[in-house]
Specification:
The protein has a domain of 170 residues: Up-down Bundle (Fumarase C, Chain A, domain 2). With 281 residues, it is mainly alpha-helical. The chain starts with 9 loop residues before the first helix and ends in a 12-residue tail after the last helix. β1 and β2 form a beta hairpin. It is elongated, with a radius of gyration of 25 Å. A two-stranded antiparallel sheet has the order 1-2.
């Protein structure tokens, strides 16, 4: 079917950057799934399970070349996305097939992938926010001495400067950056839990050795770049309270952008600021 006959969100088609769109793509998701399976196998091997380096090397060699057709066909049969991709990965890695997803539940793949992608997207947003702050700072310095009329309740009040007005917008964005930094630094993975968060399947694999199960949790998260940042206690999923922290900082940035743009729109109606036009070359 022609893509023009399908619904495509303007959030991705028109407004999102290529980098951000990629982070939420199927390609990124499924490659991250495979990285999680590799990390799990590596940690299980180091903790003494019967997994060979040859099996891990086979898994690593096939992270990038995902056989989508096999996975999609299997999903039509099983109606299970994670198990379909376990099967497809196993088709490419016959030696490692028996140890893919060993002891794990679907949320090990789904939830940890979500957190990894959220973190990377926030890091991208941080770069863009810093760039915006830099540009606004230069604007404020350029017009720091240009007088302008200020308002209270949209009524003419005292003189200020264009640069000072810009600093009001800038200050909001700096507050957002602080919250964003906090959010990025405090994101936690689900870690390696079980169907209900009891880790029973891993206790069985390690013959009841609680210490090894704890080590597995920590080792996998360290491999994935979340050193010592994982939830110690969970159900099947990571606490959704964490998602509200992300939504709050995104909302805060959106509020700052709204105030910034609304101020400009009002000033435009007063002919104090005009919509930019391209320069004639």
């Amino acid at each position: 079917m022609d893509d023009r006959c399908l619904y495509i969100s303007p959030l991705t088609k028109r407004y999102a950057s290529k980098e951000m769109s990629y982070l939420f793509s199927d390609e990124k998701k499924f490659k991250t799934w495979r990285k999680l399976w590799v990390a799990l196998a590596q940690a299980e091997k180091e903790l003494g399970l019967s997994i060979t380096q040859e099996q891990i090397d086979e898994l690593k060699a096939n992270i990038e070349n995902i056989n989508y057709e096999v996975a999609e066909q299997k999903e039509r049969e099983t109606r299970h996305d994670v198990m379909s991709h376990v099967y497809a990965y196993g088709e490419q890695c016959p030696k490692a097939k028996p140890i893919i997803h060993l002891g794990a539940t679907s949320c090990y793949i789904g939830d940890n992938t979500d957190v990894i992608i959220i973190k990377e997207s926030l890091e991208l947003l941080r770069k863009k926010l810093i760039s915006c702050i830099k540009n606004l700072k230069e604007f404020a310095l350029k017009y720091k001495d240009l007088p302008t009329l200020s308002y209270t309740h949209l009524q003419p009040a005292q003189l200020s400067t264009v640069g000072k007005r810009a600093c009001l917008w800038l200050q909001d964005l700096l507050m957002d950056l602080e919250q964003l930094e906090y959010c990025i630094e405090n994101l936690k993975l689900l870690g390696v839990k079980g169907t209900t968060g009891t880790q029973a399947s891993f206790l069985k694999l390690f013959n009841g050795d609680h210490n090894k199960v704890k080590q597995l949790d920590e080792m996998v998260c360290n491999i994935l770049g979340f050193e010592n940042k994982y939830f110690r206690v969970t159900g099947q999923t990571y606490p959704r309270k964490q998602d509200t922290l992300v939504l709050n900082v995104l909302s805060s940035i959106a509020q700052s952008a709204y105030k910034f743009s609304n101020d400009i729109r009002i000033l435009q109606s007063f002919k104090e600021i005009e919509e930019p036009f391209e320069k004639v070359r």
